[in-house]
Design goal:
heterotrimer, A: mainly alpha, 14 helices, 2 strands, B: 289 residues, alpha+beta, Immunoglobulin-like, 2 domains, five-stranded mixed β-sheet, 8 helices
Chain lengths: 587, 289, 205
């Protein structure tokens, strides 16, 4: 091969002064280092997520064994449903993917020392923590937390027939307002860092897909969360100041409430204008992470990188014009159904392409069945399953019998509960050595994986069929009906038992995390032989400022695996072309 | 290797479960067989994709498992293949969407001969109103609501005087199309009879609708399918579908709005049980305490 | 290079073997400016949705009773325009590195903003005393909601203004002062435009 001359242009932007902590408090508590903030975000998200997990157990105990647990009454059941949903979607998944992985991975993967606005980044976490605390506080006010369902539909969310309509709903809305303010501060950081702080040579198309996923998700969030903010503030007005933005004239508690003209459907439009992009705010980072982990562990370049990027962008754009597919039977103008069904099914095309490309990355790869890889395969299975059932619900007339049944519950748990959580596990097993310098215990990892994967499939696959039977969701108990066969009760009991078994596996996981931090096997540098910059730092694990004295220069894309002319089967992004060992060329 | 086997087991198990599961749609009792057909079409198309992708993946995991002697193939992209796959997917989407939209068009277009029946919902009970002899439902407004006038019928509207008010089981006759006008008084509800397949939210401040033709005589449950507060799961009603003779008989026993306002029927008086919401709630709590 | 051609680029090594090192991020704007632009885009979403809800709500109910617009709103509008002009002049002085000019105009701009906020408060109090309570009519509720959210954004801006003013008084690091003045000016112009749109909407409905 002809010798190459590489000219390294001087950096066009001066290096930003790096913030240096002066005391223990500013280093580990009020820290401005993105890696510390990432751990703080992740820790908080996981803790509140565990609360959400326990709530799901309580819910399942009631559904699996109705009339057994006297401490769960109908209003408490609805509170579990609501808080479980809200915690998992917003306070766990959004915070963990963007606040946790976004903070940790973006500066490392684009070759920056830190986020561009470290102070705002720090504030972002503390405001998020405040919003979590307000949410937790709602458990302790008279009347308890709100039981309006995570969608908080008015009028029901603020009328007296709903649990938590006193203080609970107010705290819920206030907490959301703070979450959005905090998130906006972090979100500006993620977007601008990707655009303005990349290392030399890192063009947009050289970025790993993880960064692409988080970047586009952040932009979605910056445009979607204002809708939730508007809806929350207007509902707070309705609740506290008796306005009628969303509340029409209603007849409640035996008397006419003299409000007029408000529209409950307006709230639903605002909520889902946020709510549907929110699905992709969670999914896009997951798509990105899964692409990188699969490529690394299959030792093969991601198949169709450009299509993967375009698909992320297309999905992001389309996600703003599909929101009303959540509202086919909401009483909105029925002709909207034609438009939204069409856009919804169109979005299936880029999504399907991503899925094909993951499987095609496996084709002719050299696949290591490591624990992170196992989670990725499991993600593909559950995401495919959830995507397929999404085609049922997105297709307006098929949605009619299935909406508001257990089919919907099974669908969204498969696609945006289980699937992203599997990616989070893949990411944790993949990057744990980077963050701690230790390996996670493999035996416990295998146990955790198999129980969780098989268990989750056994929980949610049969649940779809309860939806076909017609069992509605958010029901405290189905009781006596003419259409639900008695065997459905056995299925419900089975699902509950599986839930508890899967729950136990998570305890093993937490135990694995905690013991491995202290006594895990020491990891070698770059244990998975990955190409991306986060593994090429000057210290391992990366220290403050990430890259020592000199920022890396990027010479190639993030997926140089198995290139035939090289001696090694991978070449990191920042290795100078002259230093790459080439195979001798046969004359 | 293990994962490849598990993937095959998942495919086999899922298909088997689908075929032999005792849990499946209830026998249909309305004209919406077309909805069931679209579900079947969706199952076929998506099912094939599901099986093919998972089996392909299982094959890859087995065939290309790690071998230190081997190296993966370096192929960054194959645009032609991607275009083919996009095209095939788009074809599948068209196959799903076409029947979906056709049926939706039927779903939102009630036939002219459909009889209008009003369903009202409030926390946590159902009520029904038939148009009476004149075939026209009287106008309503929440302002008119009180214990004597639980439907909020305009007392000055002549069309409303002969409306039949039903706070017990609803009866319908077979093979006669009905347009249900749906009204909620307090919060969102959803009129849902699983065997009819149709459903629609009831929104305070709005009148929504669905239409259907019941075609099987039987007794069915009415459920509320939109979360409506503490009594959501116990908000049940009953609809009886029967032949013309039985239906006419039932119709005769019902009383009109003007009769009920005049207090002619003591039975109704006692059954218009607009107990205040507080008592209802106390009763609910005491059940579970 | 346009964004579209960047996105069409094949990132993997091409067959000719040459490695062409491309530059990284754009230097046309500083990170703070890009951050501000994203922030403005995000709150544009916020105000757009509020205005859509406003118009939607007028159409939905038949209960809309327009609010009389207090005359003081005209004065407030003028004050905000002058505040924006002062920021513009401060920006010009910053570009010419004239510290005294920056200090004077910045101070005037901030004080005018306080004047605007006081004027808005007076307008609300006047309406309240006339009996236009927030719960009586959605028009009233929207009046308080829109002016309130707009004012909150200005108050947020005032924190940045105060920090800039403090820096100017100390006379430290002209480069940082320039950036802050630039950002304040953009932000105030933006909020002026938002206010004008809200004001027109309040006047016409």
């Amino acid at each position: 091969m002809a010798s190459e001359t590489v000219v390294i242009p001087p950096a066009e932007l001066p290096e930003v002064e790096l913030y240096h902590a002066k005391s223990w408090i500013t280093k580990y508590v009020f820290s401005q280092d993105a890696k510390v903030i990432a751990i703080q975000y992740s820790g908080t998200a996981v803790l509140i997520g565990l609360v959400g997990l326990v709530l799901s157990w309580l819910m399942r105990l009631q559904l699996g064994f109705p009339e057994t647990f006297s401490f769960i009454d109908e209003s408490e059941y609805l509170q579990y449903v609501t808080l479980h949903g809200m915690i998992m979607v917003v306070y766990l998944l959004t915070a963990l993917f963007l606040g946790g992985f976004g903070n940790y991975m973006i500066p490392l993967m684009v070759g920056a020392r830190d986020m561009v606005f470290p102070y705002a980044n720090m504030l972002s976490f503390w405001i998020y923590l405040l919003s979590v605390l307000i949410l937790v506080a709602s458990f302790f006010v008279p009347g308890g937390p709100t039981g309006a369902g995570w969608t908080l539909y008015p009028p029901q969310a603020i009328t007296s027939g709903t649990p938590g309509s006193d203080g609970g709903i107010i705290l819920m809305l206030v907490s959301l307002v703070f979450f959005i303010i905090g998130f906006t501060m972090g979100g500006l950081n993620y977007a601008v860092t990707v655009l303005q702080a990349r290392a030399r040579g890192m063009t947009l198309m050289m970025m790993p897909l993880t960064v692409w996923g988080i970047f586009v998700a952040t932009i979605l969030a910056l445009f979607a969360f204002p809708a939730l903010l508007v809806a929350s503030i207007m509902m707070l007005f309705d609740r506290i100041l008796d306005t009628s933005f969303f509340i029409p004239m209603i007849y409640e508690m035996g008397e006419v409430i003299p409000r007029e003209g408000g529209s409950p459907v307006l709230f639903q439009h605002l909520f889902w204008f946020f709510g549907h992009p929110e699905v992709y705010i969670v999914a896009l980072p997951a798509f990105g992470i899964v692409s990188d982990v699969i490529s690394t562990h299959a030792r093969k370049a991601i198949f169709g990188y450009r299509m993967m990027v375009w698909a992320i962008i297309a999905i992001g754009g389309l996600s703003f014009i599909v929101w009303a597919h959540h509202m086919y039977v909401s009483g909105m103008n029925p002709y909207f159904g034609f438009f939204f069904a069409t856009t919804t099914l169109i979005i299936a095309i880029p999504t399907a392409l991503k899925l094909y490309n993951w499987t095609l990355t496996l084709w002719k790869g050299n696949i290591h069945m490591t624990v992170p890889m196992l989670w990725c395969i499991a993600f593909i299975v559950t995401f495919l399953n959830g995507g397929v059932t999404g085609l049922f619900l997105g297709n307006v007339s098929v949605d009619v019998p299935l909406s508001d049944t257990m089919f919907v519950v099974a669908h969204f748990h498969m696609v945006m509960g289980v699937a992203p959580i599997f990616v989070i596990f893949a990411a944790i097993y993949h990057w744990f050595p980077l963050a701690t310098g230790k390996m996670l215990n493999n035996a416990m990892g295998q146990f955790h994986f198999w129980v969780t994967f098989v268990g989750a499939y056994l929980i949610y696959f049969p649940m779809h069929y309860l939806g076909f039977v017609g069992v509605p969701r958010r029901y405290y108990e189905i009781g006596e009906t003419t259409f639900v066969p008695p065997s459905a009760a056995d299925l419900n009991a089975f699902i509950t038992i599986m839930v508890l078994i899967v729950g136990f596996a998570q305890v093993v996981f937490i135990y694995n995390l905690l013991t491995s931090i202290f006594s895990g096997k020491k990891s070698e540098v770059n244990p998975w032989k990955a190409t991306t910059l986060e593994w090429q730092t000057s210290e391992f694990p990366p220290g403050h400022g990430n890259f020592g004295d000199e920022l890396p220069v990027v010479y190639r894309w993030a997926y140089e695996y198995g290139a035939p002319e090289n001696v090694d089967d991978y070449v990191p992004q920042n290795i100078h072309p002259d230093k790459v060992a080439r195979k001798p060329i046969a004359e | 290797m293990l994962m490849a086997v598990v993937l095959v087991l998942i495919v086999v198990g899922s298909v088997a479960f689908h075929l032999v599961s005792p849990w499946w749609s209830t026998p249909i009792a309305s004209n919406w067989g077309s909805i069931d057909t679209t579900i079947d079409i969706t199952f076929w198309i998506t099912g094939v994709v599901y099986v093919v992708v998972l089996l392909f993946m299982a094959y890859c995991l087995y065939r290309f498992r790690y071998n230190p002697q081997r190296r993966s193939e370096y192929q960054p992209e194959n645009h032609k293949l991607e275009l083919w796959l996009s095209g095939l997917t788009a074809l599948g989407v068209v196959g799903l969407l076409t029947p979906g939209l056709i049926v939706w068009n039927d779903y939102i277009t009630p036939p002219d001969e459909a009889t209008e029946i009003e369903v009202v919902a409030k926390q946590w009970e159902w009520g029904f109103r038939l148009p009476g002899k004149d075939g026209v439902l009287g106008t309503t407004n929440i302002r008119f609501m009180n214990d004597e006038n639980p439907f909020g019928i305009n007392p000055d509207d002549p069309a409303g005087q002969d409306d039949l008010l039903i706070d017990d089981d609803l009866h319908l006759q077979t093979d006669k199309p009905i347009k249900f006008l749906l009204r909620a008084f307090d919060v969102l509800h959803n009129f849902y009879v699983p065997q009819f397949r149709a459903k629609m939210d009831m929104v305070p401040g709005m009148i929504t609708y669905i239409w259907l033709t019941p075609n099987r005589a039987d007794t069915f449950d009415i459920l509320c399918a939109e979360l409506c507060g503490i009594g959501h799961s116990s908000m049940r009603g009953i609809v009886v579908v029967e032949n013309v003779a039985d239906y006419e008989q039932w119709l005769k026993e019902q009383i009109t709005f003007s009769q009920s306002m005049a207090g002619l029927n003591k039975k109704i008086k006692s059954e218009v049980k607009l107990v205040s919401r507080i008592q209802d709630k106390q009763a609910l709590f005491s059940v579970h305490d | 290079m346009s964004i579209l051609s960047q996105l069409r680029e094949k990132p993997w090594p091409q067959s000719n073997g040459a490695t062409v090192l491309k530059v990284g991020p754009s230097i046309l704007r500083t990170p703070t400016e890009v951050g501000l632009l994203f922030f403005l885009a995000s709150i544009t979403g916020l105000f757009t949705l509020l205005l859509i809800s406003y118009n939607g709500r007028i159409l939905l109910g038949n209960d809309w009773v327009p609010v009389p617009d207090p005359a003081i709103l005209w004065i407030n509008t003028a004050i905000l325009i002058f505040s924006s002009i002062a920021f513009h002049r401060a920006r010009k002085h910053a570009q010419a590195s004239k510290v005294i000019g920056i200090r004077k105009n910045l101070l005037v701009a901030g004080l005018l903003t306080f004047g605007f906020l006081s004027g808005q408060t007076i307008a609300s109090l006047q309406l309240y005393e006339l009996g236009y309570y927030v719960s009586n009519n959605p028009a009233n509720a929207f009046f308080y909601l829109l002016t309130g959210i707009h004012a909150l954004h200005l108050i947020g801006g005032l924190f940045v203004w105060m920090r800039t003013q403090y820096r100017v008084q100390l006379g430290v690091d002209l480069r940082k002062i320039k950036v802050s003045v630039e950002l304040c000016a953009i932000y105030w112009h933006y909020l002026l435009v938002v206010w004008l749109i809200i004001f027109v909407l309040l006047l016409t409905t």
